[in-house]
Write a structure and sequence with these properties.
β6, α5 (132-144) and β7 (148-153) form a beta-alpha-beta unit. The chain starts with a strand and ends in a 7-residue tail after the last helix. By secondary structure, it is α/β, with parallel strands linked by helices. Helices cover 41% and strands 13% of the residues. It has 13 helices and ten strands. α5 packs across α6 and α9 packs antiparallel against α13 (307-317). It has helices at 23-26, 30-42, 58-70, 99-113, 132-144, 158-171, 189-194, 198-202, 245-260, 265-274, 289-296, 298-301, 307-317; strands spanning 3-5, 12-14, 16-19, 47-49, 78-83, 118-123, 148-153, 178-179, 205-208, 279-284. It has an eight-stranded parallel beta barrel with strand order 3-4-5-6-7-8-9-10, surrounded by four helices. A two-stranded antiparallel ribbon has the order 1-2. It has a single domain (3-317), classed as TIM Barrel (Alpha-Beta Barrel).
């Protein structure tokens, strides 16, 4: 396993990490979750990603129980959560980043995880109704209280991240250290273009999600939507909008490239994300230990991504990305 610094921070995270989005609670029980986390750990994964909104807090409870059962030293792993959506419908309990929500959000997460602190806390979306200065101060206070070590954003625009950083700089507060955007062979604009000035400018680190484009880059949807797939799950119907003919055709063009490198299209897609030097960690998902092990084989593909191979990949993706 390769470990990269979280942007300009001293903290190092595994290049491939393990996240619980979708799978925990919907497709996995605690035993299965534990087996996957153990498999990831045995392959050198030290970063485990989560969020309060994943199964309304149940995902955090499951991950916390697994961490306690494993007996891993607290200093040996990095765990995150994300706050914004909330678990209740009160006017100050959902879709906000005001001081009250953030204070109660971190306290609730720590209780569900049964941990004294979290390493990373993300503001899961931007709250246009709360002054960004209030959010920045609240996250600073969260770190000062020892409940979190680093804070960042998820799915914020580049200008919003920069504004938050500037507020923190002005008042000598803890700055946003990382962003968690979607990034894969099809969704690239934000990471490769919009954020470009933020990497050298403020030392932004990335923990990217959906590297397989919700499974499209595994090839499982090449002939339709399998009944046991993510897109067939109740509440996930919106993912079908991303399943376009041009993307399926691109996956088919990637197949011979992956085969020549000794891997699958999914492993090639993971390695491609990790090939970007601005990515600190690529968050992977799996519902079985065998899937975890298959994902980790992407590390064998990574050194094979020569400029010539990357050029072939770009040709295969022509017309299928959001880079226009």
């Amino acid at each position: 396993m390769e470990y990269r610094r979280l942007g300009s921070a001293g903290l190092k995270v595994s290049l491939l990490s393990y996240g619980s989005w979708v799978t925990y609670g919907k497709q996995m029980d605690p035993d299965a979750a534990g087996a996957c986390m153990q498999a990831a750990w045995e392959h050198g994964v030290n970063f485990f990603d989560n969020a309060e909104a994943y199964e309304a807090g149940r995902s955090e409870e499951i991950m916390g129980a697994v961490l306690k059962k494993t007996g891993w030293r607290r200093a040996s792993y990095v765990v995150s959560t994300k706050i914004f959506w909330g678990l209740h419908d009160g006017v100050n309990e959902k879709n906000t980043l005001n001081r009250k929500r953030l204070r109660e959000g971190i306290d609730g997460a720590l209780k569900r995880f049964d941990l004294d602190y979290l390493d990373l806390v993300f503001c899961h979306r931007r709250d246009p109704e709360t002054p960004i200065e209030e959010t920045v101060w609240s996250m600073h206070m969260m770190i000062e209280s020892g409940k979190a070590l680093y804070w960042g954003t998820s799915e914020w625009a580049a200008d919003e991240v920069r504004e938050a950083w500037d507020v923190a700089e002005k008042h000598h507060l803890h700055k946003p250290q990382m962003e968690q955007p979607q990034y894969n062979m099809f969704v690239r604009r934000k990471v490769e273009r919009d954020f470009a000035r933020l990497y050298p400018g403020i030392g932004l680190g990335l923990t990217t999600f959906s590297p397989l484009a919700s499974g499209i880059l595994t090839g499982k949807y090449n002939t339709g939507i399998p009944k046991d797939s993510r897109m067939a799950l109740p509440g996930m119907e919106w993912l079908k909008d991303s399943l376009t003919t041009v993307r399926v055709d691109a996956v088919k063009k990637l197949q011979p490239i992956a085969s020549e490198l000794g891997g699958t299209v999914a492993q090639l897609a993971l390695a491609w994300c990790a090939h970007n030097p601005n990515v600190s960690s690529v968050i992977t998902g799996a519902s079985r230990p065998e899937q975890v092990k298959e994902n980790m084989k992407a590390l064998d593909i990574l050194p094979k991504l020569t400029p010539q191979v990357v050029e072939r990949i770009e040709k295969a993706l022509a017309g299928a990305t959001d880079l226009v």
